Amino acid sequence: MAITPRDNESFYREVDDELRKEQLTNVWKRYGIAIAAAVLLFLAGLAGFLWWQHRQAEQAGARGEALVAAFEDVQAGRTKAALPKLDRLAAEDAPGTQAAALLTKADAAIQDNNLPAAIAAFKSVAENGNFAEPYRNLALIRQTTLEFDRLQPAEVIRRLEPLAVAGGPWFGSAGELVAIAHLKGGQTGRAAPIFAALAKDEKLPSSIRSRAVQMAGSLGIDAVVEADGAGAGAAAAKE
Predict the structure, then answer these.
(1) What is the value of pTM for the model shown?
(2) Read out DSSP for 91-154?
(3) How far apart are CA 61 and CA 59, in angstroms?
(4) What angle (nearest 5°) sits at the alpha carbon of residue 100, between those of residues 173 and 74?
(5) pLDDT tens digits, residue range 138-195?
(6) What is the SS3 assignment for 26-81?
């Protein structure tokens, strides 16, 4: 009796299924323990990673709470209560927390009229390459502000001129200090344009702009007219 094509197809499928089962059985016999071990190692690694991630989140939350508590102590004038908390946070292996703690320590030292300690704290942030640039720039400006009267004008300019860029985030504070340093060094021609630029920058606090208008005026630049003109131009552009 001849086998129909359909019977042939069924036969081949059964043979193929049996062959696959035999191959899987052989593979499992040969590599089953290794496969099981690999799966267990993967699951253990995944569990470890998830635990580490959870632990990191817990630690970050605890550091944040401790930092807020220290901030509140400093704002309330309880610097003695704040300092131990800040010292612990400054010793943490977390650059953001360290920088914030050191900057707060500097503020606490200023409240206690301990300027050398404040300068040292700002300097430690400004010179730490592990900290984010905004922390370092802020610390450098505040350090230089406290040291300004004892620094040579050239040193102030060297430190802050890279930050005294019109339109930049540090232009107000750094620009004002650089302009005053130029004045102290007898370089009025370099100071005047900076004061004029400060007076025209509408993003800066009014206190800085007001001082800049006065200083620019004393150097022969009518910054009031220039600033008003810039403001009128901006208003016309909006319309």
Answers:
(1) 0.65
(2) TSS-HHHHHHHHHHHHHHHHHTT-HHHHHHHHHHHHT-TTS-HHHHHHHHHHHHHHHGGGS-HH
(3) 5
(4) 90
(5) 999 999 999 999 999 999 999 999 999 999 999 999 999 999 999 999 999 999 999 9
(6) HHHHHHHHHHHHHHHHHHHHHHHHHHHHHHHHHHHHHHHHHHHHHHHHHHCCCHHH
